[in-house]
Write a structure and sequence with these properties.
Length: 319
């Protein structure tokens, strides 16, 4: 991390002049999360214009950026807001070196997985939605996706295949999770193209969409502008959208179409038509089977690998 010191603010840094849109772009926090952090945790207290618009100072943006970076390791925001900037900088510096209450956090998330499964078994979509919202706000998108949604979906899939859950249970769970991830991806898409852009979709005949939604949500937490196109899209449309949308990365999720000859042909064509500077990513349970046929494509095996690749793509020497 280099030399990390408490931030020094100049005399103009406390002047409230930045609207929510600017704050969202600079911090990587969606407008929805900003509102929650202010109302529930009093993370910052923005001023108001004569018209009632929230206005933030440079100091507010710096504080929110620190809170966002510190919470990315799974720490609870309700605790972080009580810490001074110097303490937040120390937490950020040691992230990845010293576990941050991993035991209690894992136990809490395991309990949420159990509660989520119970809600699914009762077909209680409202309760499941509430659990996911709480986890998003308390732990962030990264932790919620990897340590709550993925394990929950795995358990639901196992029980469905064993005949212990009905298709209705699986549909309810995926519907609620889909809506939760869609909110994150939508918030990211509202920002300007000053941020790098990633196109996320599933190719034609691939109708399993949750993996793509997780990719979109993860990219949003990395401060990428997300162009989310959903499921079952022909590669010709993907190529056209990538061109019109000025995408730097095209990410496709392939779950059920294992060793599909037609898809191999389509992906080869897509790889040949995309400009050399545009990265083509493949993710999902069936993605590895296409790697040899499409050498240009990079297979992403998990969300951590995706985050690392997106951070590398943001480096100036990669443009």
């Amino acid at each position: 991390m280099g030399d990390i010191r408490p931030m020094q603010y100049d005399s103009g840094s406390v002047a409230p002049r930045h609207p929510v849109r600017v704050v969202s772009e600079r911090t990587g926090l969606s407008p929805h999360v900003l509102r929650i952090w202010e109302r529930r945790y009093q993370a910052v207290t923005p001023a108001r214009s004569e018209g009632g618009q929230r206005l933030y100072s440079d100091a507010d943006i710096a504080r929110l950026t620190l809170l966002h970076q510190a919470s990315a390791g799974g720490r609870n925001v309700s605790h972080l807001v009580t810490l001074p900037d110097a303490a937040l900088l120390e937490l950020i510096a040691v992230r990845g070196q010293v576990p941050d209450a991993a035991g209690p956090l894992d136990e809490e998330l395991e309990a949420l997985v159990t509660e989520g499964l119970e809600a699914v078994e009762r077909l209680d979509g409202e309760r499941l939605d509430s659990l996911l919202r709480h986890a998003m706000l308390a732990h962030g998108v990264e932790v919620t996706t990897e340590k709550l949604m993925v394990p929950l979906l795995s358990l639901i899939g196992e029980r469905w295949h064993a005949g212990r859950l009905l298709p209705a249970h699986e549909h309810l769970a995926t519907g609620v999770i889909h809506r939760t991830l869609a909110r994150v991806a939508h918030d990211s898409a509202t920002g300007s193209l000053t941020r790098p852009r990633i196109l996320v979709a599933t190719p034609a005949r691939e109708r399993h969409e949750l993996g793509a939604m997780m990719v979109a949500a993860t990219a949003a937490t990395c401060n990428w502008n997300v162009l989310y196109l959903g499921q079952d899209l022909p590669v010709q449309e993907i190529a056209r959208a990538a061109e019109l949308g000025m995408a730097r990365v095209v990410a496709l999720s392939v779950v059920y179409l294992a060793d599909d000859a037609q898809l191999k042909t389509e992906l080869r064509w897509l790889a040949s038509i995309l400009p050399p500077q545009v990265r083509l990513l493949l993710g999902g349970a069936a993605a590895a089977g296409y790697a040899e046929a499409i050498p240009r494509a990079t297979v992403i095996r998990d969300l951590s690998a995706l985050r690392e690749l997106l951070r590398q793509e943001e480096r100036p020497d990669r443009r």
